[in-house]
Amino acid sequence: MLVYECELFEVVPILRRYARALTGATDRGDALVTRCVEAAVMAPSRFGLDRGGDGSRLSMYALLNLLFDRSPEEFGPPGRPLPSPHPIERALAELPEAERRLYLLTALEGLSIRQAAKVLQLPAGESIDRLKAARARVRAAMVQRVMVVEDNALLAMELGELVADMGHVVCGTAGNETEALALLKAEKPTLALLDVRLADGGSGIEIARRLKRVRDLRTIFVTAFDDDIRALDARHLGQIVRKPFTNAGIQAAISRAIFMPQPVALA
User: Fold this and answer.
1) Is 204 among the domain residues?
2) 175 shares a domain with 209
3) 264 in a domain, yes or no?
4) In this predicted model, what pLDDT tens digit does every residue of 87-118 receive, in sequence order?
5) Is 189 found in the same domain as 158?
6) pLDDT at 217 over 70
7) Residues 157 and 82 in one domain
8) Distances (CA, A) of 261 to 23, 28, 258, 264
9) CATH number of domain containing 177
10) Could you tell me where the DSSP H helices lie in the chain?
11) Alpha carbon of 263 to those of 20, 40, 172, 185, 214: distances in Å?
12) CA angle 75, 78, 83 (to 5 degrees)
């Protein structure tokens, strides 16, 4: 064991990162790495520990995949991650498994497509096509359908342009609660930008509460009246961007909302 301590010391943190992403859980990922190291120590030459370098790293990635596929009783569903609250992980979980692993090995672990193909025992040409498909599907999964609730038509248009510039879809604008709830039903938005004080006397805070009850919709308040949100103890309903807003402020809030962990649906 002492002969290979330096090699293992360098590779274990890397393996833990990949294993946690592979299994979808910290404890299962760490248990998988422990099993992997134990197996590698039993046959160091087979897994390149006696040679070091990229060869041992790629061999250990391959061993992690093999153990994950063969031990569902320990590491979850055969060859699949546990459900995750994180949007990108949830998007990745929808991919065919070979594409998910290609994505992880290249995007998370920094392997070349040729190295990732070697780990997964896939032809290089096929791997390139699969990785392109995986990237396209992950990008599509991150696109939001955004509802804008703002009674000022010019501001609503400006917000819509910002949303579109980020690559998202404006599924509609509303000036009051009735229009907002109709949009919710007809367009199935995934994110809402809400003014607080509306011209008809309506409240964006009450709309946010309705949206939360009906669909647990993520919301961002875009308002000059953030004191209303604090007074009504509504800060838990969404982020706050003060008017006059900046492009960077709106874009940052949308990005935070997209990557915010969401509850995992129970089967």
Assistant:
1) yes
2) yes
3) no
4) 888 889 899 999 999 999 999 999 999 999 99
5) yes
6) yes
7) no
8) 17, 20, 8, 9
9) 3.40.50.2300
10) 5-23, 26-42, 53-70, 72-75, 87-93, 97-103, 113-120, 124-142, 153-165, 177-187, 204-215, 226-231, 247-259
11) 19, 37, 26, 21, 15
12) 65
- Token pair 């955004």 in the structure block, residue: 146
Contact 124, 113 (CB under 8 A): yes
Whether the predicted pLDDT of 73 surpasses 70: no
Contact between 47 and 40 under an 8 Å Cβ cutoff? The reply is: yes
Residue 127, pLDDT > 70, answer: yes
**Do 85 and 201 fall within a single domain?**
no
- The reported pTM is 0.74
What is the average pLDDT across 185-212? 90
- For 204, the token pair is 């964006």
Q: If we measure between CA atoms, which residue out of 190, 220, 223, 198 comes closest to residue 208?
A: 220
Provide the β-strand partners of residue 172: 147
Q: Which domain holds residue 67?
A: 2-141
User: What radius of gyration, in Å, describes the C-alpha atoms of the chain?
Assistant: 24
**Tokens for 69?**
């596929």
Q: Kindly state whether residues 74 and 166 are assigned to the same domain.
A: no
Q: Are 62 and 39 in contact (CB under 8 A)?
A: no
